[in-house]
C-alpha cells in the first residue's frame, strides 16, 4: 500500500476504533435471541464476539499490516464450499416443493370439478356438507404448503448462522494476522482500497477449515414453526 494510503487508513482507524469497540461491547451485552444469521464482529483483543478464543495463525507469510480490514459477508458465504452446498440443496428443496404444489393443485381442481358435476343429482344438504369439508381440507393443505415454504427460508437462515458461527474464530485469526483492530462489512462502505479486503482469504481458509459443513433437516425447521405436521391431499 502507498504511504498516503497507509496514513489515510491510520486516520480512519483512529476515528473508527472507539465506535467499533463500543458497538462490539453493546453487541456482547445484548440478550441472545434467534434472528438473521450473524455477519462478523471481532474485538480489538482478537477474540471473536461469540466468545470463542482465536487460535494461532500460521507464520512465515508476509501480509499487509493495516488497522482496518473489509469483508463482503455475502460473497464469503456464497463462494465458500459451505455456501455452495447449502444453496444447491435449498434450490433442490424449493424445486421439489414447487412440483408438489403443482401436483396438489391439479388433484384439488379435479376433485372440485367432480363435486360440481355431481351437484345437480345431490341433496342440497349433502352437497353443502361435502363442499364445506372440501374447503376445510383445501385450507389445511394450503397452510401446510406455506409452512414448508417458510421452513425452506428458515433453513437458509440456519445455514448462514451455522457458517458464520463456525467462521468466527477464523475471522479473529485473520484480523490478528493483519494487525487490525476491526473488520468492517464491505457492503456498508462506499470506497476502500482493495488491498484491505480479506474476502478471498477468508473463503480459502473457510474451505480448508470448515469444508462444506453439514445441513440441518428441513423437518427440524418445520417443527420450529410450531405448526405440527403438514396436512395431506386426498388419497
Structure at a glance:
Residues 1-32 form the signal peptide. Helices cover 61% and strands 3% of the residues. The protein is mainly alpha-helical and 235 residues long.
Level of helix content? 55-70%
Largest sheet composition: 2 strands, parallel
The geometry reads as rod-shaped
Listing every helix as H and every strand as E from the N terminus to the C terminus, the arrangement reads: HEHHHEHH
Radius of gyration (CA) equals: 26 Å
Number of strands: 2
- Relative strand content: under 5%
Can you list the strand order of the major beta sheet?
1-2
Figure out the total of helices: 6
| Spatial separation of the terminal alpha carbons | 69 Å
Structural class comes to mainly alpha
Query: What is the number of domains?
Result: 1
Unreliable spans are 1-60, 221-235
Average pLDDT, all residues: 73
Would you write up a description of this structure?
With 235 residues, the chain is mainly alpha-helical. It has one domain (3-70, 77-224). 61% of the residues lie in helices and 3% in strands. Helix 4 (124-177) crosses helix 5 (199-209) and helix 4 (124-177) packs across helix 6 (218-224).
Quick tags:
235 residues; mainly alpha; two-stranded parallel sheet; 6 helices; disordered N terminus; disordered C terminus
List the helices and strands and how they pair.
Blueprint: H1 3-29, E1 68-71, H2 73-79, H3 81-118, H4 124-177, E2 182-185, H5 199-209, H6 218-224
Parallel strand pairs: 1-2
Helix pairs in contact: 2-3, 2-5, 3-4, 4-5, 4-6
Amino acid at each position: 500500500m502507498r504511504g498516503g494510503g497507509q496514513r489515510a487508513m491510520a486516520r480512519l482507524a483512529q476515528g473508527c476504533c472507539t465506535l467499533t469497540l463500543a458497538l462490539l461491547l453493546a453487541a456482547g451485552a445484548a440478550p441472545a435471541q434467534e434472528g438473521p444469521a450473524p455477519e462478523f464482529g471481532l474485538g480489538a483483543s482478537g477474540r471473536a464476539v461469540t466468545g470463542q478464543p482465536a487460535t494461532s495463525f500460521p507464520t512465515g507469510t508476509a501480509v499487509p499490516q493495516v488497522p482496518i480490514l473489509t469483508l463482503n459477508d455475502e460473497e464469503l458465504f456464497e463462494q465458500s464450499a459451505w455456501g455452495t452446498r447449502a444453496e444447491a440443496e435449498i434450490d433442490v428443496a424449493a424445486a421439489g416443493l414447487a412440483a408438489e404444489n403443482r401436483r396438489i393443485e391439479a388433484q384439488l381442481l379435479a376433485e372440485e370439478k367432480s363435486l360440481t358435476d355431481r351437484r345437480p343429482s345431490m341433496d342440497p344438504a349433502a352437497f353443502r356438507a361435502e363442499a364445506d369439508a372440501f374447503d376445510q381440507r383445501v385450507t389445511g393443505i394450503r397452510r401446510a404448503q406455506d409452512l414448508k415454504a417458510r421452513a425452506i427460508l428458515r433453513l437458509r437462515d440456519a445455514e448462514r448462522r451455522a457458517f458464520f458461527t463456525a467462521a468466527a474464530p477464523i475471522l479473529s485469526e485473520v484480523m490478528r494476522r493483519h494487525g487490525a483492530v476491526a473488520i468492517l462489512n464491505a457492503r456498508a462502505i462506499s470506497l476502500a482500497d482493495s488491498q484491505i479486503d480479506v474476502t478471498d482469504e477468508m473463503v480459502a481458509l473457510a474451505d480448508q477449515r470448515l469444508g462444506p459443513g453439514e445441513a440441518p433437516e428441513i423437518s427440524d425447521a418445520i417443527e420450529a414453526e410450531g405448526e405440527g405436521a403438514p396436512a395431506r391431499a386426498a388419497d
